[in-house]
Design goal:
The chain is α/β, with parallel strands linked by helices and about 350 residues long. Helices cover about 40% and strands about 15% of the residues. The chain has an eight-stranded parallel sheet, sandwiched between helices. Helix 7 packs across helix 10. The protein starts with a strand and ends in a 10-residue tail after the last helix. Bound molecules: zinc ion. Zinc ion binds next to loops. The site of zinc ion has 7 residues, from loops.
């Protein structure tokens, strides 16, 4: 079964402005890398399609949708970081709609896993507003589709972008059907995501935040995935795994202060594939978020795609190294907090 892929030059048509780091160049470099990658012919590429108002409206308010729609055909500034060009509204609809189609394809067994290489990113967009380069929250919209239309009851959202996905957390912090897990640099934009934020009401314990100081390496991230995410995810028993896949924790990224290499991304992918294998085979779908060193991002994306295709050598080597590493203080703190909500940590 092929890995599903969304990639199309149309996603380069959103331009937030000259000198903006979230530039079309990110995908230009990625397209060149994909074209030279032997694995591409084993992927199934899905054509982009726009999300409908109903699909977007499951997450965003009518006011917000109206505001973004109002930027069609012109450049607008939505917040100090977030701008649009004439086609941004159309491209944002395509990003959200294409991710939904990719999820449906995985759910129906047409593809095994998948990755949507789309722009603009989404995880900072809240129900009411655009922020942090994000217009519509692609991953939240896809998760809402899986719940509302496909009738799923448990969706795991993993956010490994270097920034906290405040928008996604906002959407689901009171919803026990979505387990939201974020590992992010702190202090850093947008300033949210403390470990003590664990969700509320019926969603109490279904938000997991692991804020970490800069400088963390592959083994630090992988230990968090092995020791914290893996046991909780297995207790949750996801029917689908969505990933907010930013690559701005890469050591070459100009915004992030982390030290990841492509093997770290491969390792995190492998852990999610193993969880999926036991609970929802073939249903790990990633959506591009940040990543501002285009060449490093392209290498990391190819490492993720190769892992999804079953080439797990790089991932296995990094996972083995991580098992020998010391667990970080951030991991110990997050585990102690999660032990209040998840029996898997009893007796630790
Ligand atoms: Zn980011």
């Amino acid at each position: 079964m092929p890995v599903g892929l969304v990639h199309d030059p149309i996603f380069q048509e959103h331009d937030p402005g000259d000198f903006h780091v979230e530039s079309p160049r990110r995908l230009e470099v990625l397209e060149q890398a994909l074209a030279a990658w032997p694995g591409l012919k084993m992927c199934l590429s899905l054509p982009p399609r726009p999300a409908t108002r109903d699909e977007i409206g499951r997450v965003h308010t009518a006011n917000h949708i109206q505001r973004i729609a109002g930027t069609a055909g012109r450049s607008a500034s939505l917040d100090p970081d977030t701008g649009t060009s004439s086609q941004s509204y159309e491209v944002a609809l395509l990003a959200a709609g294409s991710l939904i189609d990719l999820c449906d394809a995985a759910l129906e067994g047409h593809v095994q896993h998948g990755m949507a290489l789309v722009r603009p990113p989404g995880h900072h967009a809240t129900p009411e507003r655009a922020m942090g380069f994000c217009l519509f929250n692609n991953v939240a919209i896809a998760a809402s589709h899986l719940l509302a239309v496909r009738g799923l009851e448990r969706v795991l959202v993993v956010d490994w972008d270097v920034h906290h996905g405040n928008g996604t957390e906002d959407c689901f912090s009171r919803d026990e059907r979505v387990l939201y897990f974020s590992v992010h640099q702190s202090p850093m934009y947008p300033g949210t995501g403390p470990a003590a934020m664990v969700g509320s009401g019926p969603g109490l314990g279904y938000t997991m935040n692991v804020p970490m100081l800069g400088g963390q390496q592959d083994s630090d991230y992988l230990r968090v995935f092995q020791d914290l995410l893996d046991p909780v995810a297995r207790a949750f028993a996801p029917q689908f795994i969505l990933v907010s896949a930013g690559f701005d924790a890469h050591r070459e990224d100009p915004l992030g202060g982390m030290e990841l290499r492509r093997g770290g991304y491969a390792g995190m992918t492998k852990i999610l594939m193993d969880i999926a294998q036991d609970y929802c085979p073939g249903r790990v779908v990633l959506s591009l978020e940040g990543g501002y060193q285009p060449a490093a991002q392209a290498r990391s994306v190819l490492a993720v795609l190769a892992t999804l295709q079953g080439d797990t050598m790089l991932a296995q080597a990094c996972l083995e190294a991580a098992r020998q590493a010391e667990p970080s203080a951030a991991l110990q703190r997050a585990k102690a907090i999660m032990a209040k909500y998840w029996a898997v940590f009893e007796g630790l």
